[in-house]
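Below sits the subject:
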Amino acid sequence: MRGKFIVFEGGNGSGKTTQIRLFNKYLVKKGVPVISTHGFGTKFGQIIKKIYLQFENNALTPFTEALLLCSTRSQLIDKLIIPSLKNGYIVLCDRFNLSILAYYCCGLDLSVETLSFILQSATRNLRPDLTILLDIDPVIALGRIHQRDRFERLPLEFHAKVRDGFLKLVLKDNKTIIISAEGSIDQIQLKIRDIALELIKEAESLV
């Protein structure tokens, strides 16, 4: 049985990490084989993350940064996601390709066509079975963050462009569900369960 690949996307402060943690805990209690990861979720990815975060003040060009992120996705696909799916696991991932496109193409004006082609090649054309986009006003989202990284310190205008980018990029994607992230944590989690459990039941029915 092939497992299912579920990605959580959204801007900084949208609550992705909290919701993945809660959903993972719920699935474990239900006895569902599940693995949670994120865009930097390999040893190689962690090394790239340190490099990625230490450069300030445009030391790296946006395209260079985007290529670094593409390499982390490629390693993640080969070393964790594909093997886990083949073994029947539900794979939950905090950010995947959509975030790179929203931040670097919509936020920093790189070519969507060029970066999409690179990402598709890097990730073997593997698409999530379900993407949950947590949508939130960036003013509210940034107000939740106490210690900001260099991306979170960028102007509000940038974060507004990223939010619009997410919404535009998923307009024609029937495997993406948009959920407002402005409700309570429990309300959002219940919506996620309602949506994702249908997909998981489908996977279990194939056993």
Summary: The CA atoms of residues 43 and 195 lie 31 Å apart.
